[in-house]
Amino acid sequence: MEHSNHEAVIVSSHGDGGLMTQQLLQELFMPFFNNDWLAQADDAAFLQHRDEALAFSTDSFVVSPLFFPGGDIGKLAVCGTVNDLVVSGAKPLWLSAAFILPEGLSIKRLTRIVRSMAETARLLELPIVTGDTKVANTGDPENLFINTTGIGAVHPRTYLNASRLEAGDAIIITGTIADHGAAILASRLGLDVEELPASDCAPLCYLLDTLEPFLPRIKMMRDPTRGGVATTLKEIALAAGLDLVLEETALKINPRVQAIAESLGVDPLYLASEGRALIITSQEDAAGVIEALRLHPQGKESAIIGSVRPGKGNLCLKTNLGGTRMLQMLSGTPLPRIC
Fold first, then answer.
1. Mean pLDDT in runs of 10 for the chain (339 residues)?
2. Nearest alpha carbon to residue 60 among 277, 276, 226
3. Alpha-carbon distances of 71 from 64, 68, 202, 231, rounded to whole Å
């Protein structure tokens, strides 16, 4: 979208986590902010303080509606930053929380959100140690925005990097896909509560303990949030310079999620998950990783969904019918304010 004078402007697709988001980052932000830490392009920056390796991550949450089946913007704000640290191999230690409050927002609704954040952080024994509040006249009392920043201690036995991927490695996911994105879209449709799928919004802190014996050999972990499984894996494929091949028959999709996606003409592979992790490890370790994950309630539906192949950064889906479909990053699909 452009003004009549041909000046380029921001559109909703710049925030969907897909191709236009990547272009915005690479063409605008990186040239101005570029440094060695930012160039890592991970979910967290890795910092060295004396003898301790730290991970530092920040995220902003603009989800609409503020409350949805399985969570709310407060729970999401804690889980989102916590999960970025965990899939970077770090145990979360501290969080900050900053609020941009819209004029007209109900104090009762804000209280529910803050309580939800506090309860989620308390369950993780994770203190929110600093923060900020601002009030803005946005014209909509539901336009609440929350930023959370987290610092974590990097597990000394982890080295998670796309450069470690090799042909033959297994791609694992810790559960069903697209639950969060479908829950948000279904909420916007105003369906009966009984018909709504629930978001998978949840912290992934269990991963570091559950996978302790395998951590040195796990090569990559990511949480497939904005842009979904397809966009996340496409980013990994490009970074590794190898092809990733998914098996459609191995993907687990909640029937309600599938129904919502079909009714809206949206591919579940591009819908966000907020409580799942993608894990890439050697084929030899894959069975042991799956067995360990399934011992935890959040990982009971873990499965191998694909493998790494020689190539040049392609992402392919072997379909149920035996064909092959090339997958790209999310591009132009109107999914604003999903997380």
1. 69 80 88 89 87 95 95 98 98 98 97 98 98 95 97 95 97 98 90 80 97 97 96 97 98 94 92 98 98 98 98 97 93 73
2. 226
3. 12, 6, 9, 24
The CA distances from residue 266 to 96, 258, 271, 318, 333, in Å, are 34, 9, 8, 18, 8
Sequence letter at residue 335: L
CB 89 within 8 A of CB 221: yes
When the candidates are 1.10.10.10, 3.30.1330.10, 3.20.20.70, 3.40.50.280, the CATH number that belongs to 39-154 is: 3.30.1330.10
The residues, ordered by sequence, that sit 6+ positions from 71 with a Cβ below 8 Å of its Cβ are: 79, 116, 199, 201, 274
CA 225, chain centre distance (Å): 3
Distance CA 99, CA 299 (A): 32
Residues in the chain: 339
- pTM for the full predicted model: 0.93
